[in-house]
Amino acid sequence: MRQKGILCLFAITICTTVELKADIISLIRADQCETITEIYIEEDQIRVTFEIGENDYIHFHRLIPEEYMENGLNDQNKSEYLSHFFNETFIITANGKRLTGELIELKRLPRNYRASLYTGQVDTASLTISPRVIYAEIIYITEKPNHVAITPPLIDGYSGTLANIGFVTYHKGLPVNDLRYLATEETVHLDWSDPWYTKFENKNIARHHKNSLMSFLYVDPYEIRHEMLVRLKDLEDWIDLDYHIDDDIKAAELDSIKNVVADFLITRNKLTADGIAIPPILDKVHFVEVKLSGIQILEKPRDLPYSAAIIGVILVYPHESMPGRVTIDWDMWSEKLQSVPCVMSDPAGPMPYDLMPGDTTLVWVNYLKNYELPTVSKVNITQASVSYPLFTILLLLGLTWLVVHTLRRRKSWNWIRITGPIVLLIGAFLLLPFWVNTKIPFVQKKSFSRPEASTLVADLLHNTYRSFDFRDESLVYDKLALCNYGDLLSEIYIQTKQSMVLENQGGIQVKLKSVDMLNVDEIRLKDLEKDALAFECEWVVEGDVGHWGHIHKRINQYQAIMKVKPVEGSWKMYGLEIIEETRKL
Fold first, then answer.
1. What is the largest CA-CA distance in the chain?
2. Is the same domain home to 34 and 77?
3. pLDDT at 101 over 90
4. Which of 159, 299, 449, 559 is the most buried (most CB within 10 A)?
5. What is the tens place of the pLDDT at every residue in 216-235?
6. Do 357 and 416 lie in a common domain?
């Protein structure tokens, strides 16, 4: 049993490593290749599709129609050109035998831009690839080969292809690898008994989610979260679902299976915080799919292949603050399940760890230094104040001293009369930039400079967003009530909660990272309550959340009119009119 230890210099290296392992961050931008090839391996055939960009026409010229390239493919040379293509240009072999395919479709299309594996979004602004492609589809007939080799166009004297090709391979619908460069011959070994374990000889060509079971522990203030991704087939040693490897799970059966799996997992892998066992709360359970862009929630029920069906279960353990030590005792092992990749994450970052039958306890220890627990507090009303230039105070004090001194020692009057004013003037000049702020007792501050107004509004917004760090709804309302008042309380609960939810991730909620004020102006409104103030303000709120090994961000920008008033010694929002809301990320 090993523990999580973070040293400053070591942490930098570790965090970099974890980011590459836990998240889909590929510095290999295969999504921006000029040509994209997709290979689908089934029991009786191999289907290959090409999207060939203009800059790669020369490498695939025996597939390019003559209207797009001189001496291109036409009816007269079709047989000769295709034979050369199958045997010398782009070669597919099954069990060492070179396959001859049949061209099914050939046409020109707008490019289907792929989402970046780094951002999860299509980044057309920085792309230099051609906007239109030649689409080709070829079928190769074969019968359950043990291994398939894929060879791109090669030229004598070069170790790799000069074409810019990105490729992905599927075995019975399951992606074998992420979108990667196809530079030279690559061989994939096929596991027909369980396509999950199909893999390339080249270990660098693999999919990011290659383990059938993964565990993610998130330790945050006020909450511990344990997320598990489990392939249904690997639960057969504990749950009899009565499916075979080639079966499909019907859409109507998905909900009942989710309930069975969730009820099972909630009783396993006990968690303790500071030595105390905490009963889990089932937060969410979803069927998910392994996509090229990562783990995706199955939003609409549909039939799923049993061999690739993955279920995600999220268990939550409320905690009063930040624990000192958290443990999970993993108790699920089988002949194939001999390793469970885990990632522990806290405010300092992620830490990977692999559990094994001889090392079954995952341990997180709080090594956070100078960590301040995020809190929600009142924005107290400050007293009104007045500022005086320091040189004025000095002159008054000096003159007072001169008068007193003169009255007591008249003999020294001549010396004081000459040197005193000189000293006072020099001192006053030096202190000219300095002012003294003095509070006025029993008088509340009712107007604000722009910097002061910005701080007031930012504090109110920060506390509002921070209230959602707590899970219990009544506790969230209690925290919101510290800075919000009246009918606005329930309204802002609904609006803010909706703005912080990631719909495409099953409704998981981001947590506040920052509130940046862009502009705050105090304005006059006729309908203001007594002692109330109104501000026209603009701000950006950023939140993020770790989820299944990835960091998901949400950035929103708002323009609004905010009304605030003093309530029992503190400022509270009692009105908020959103003029414009923009989703930045």
1. 126
2. yes
3. yes
4. 559
5. 999 999 999 999 999 999 99
6. no
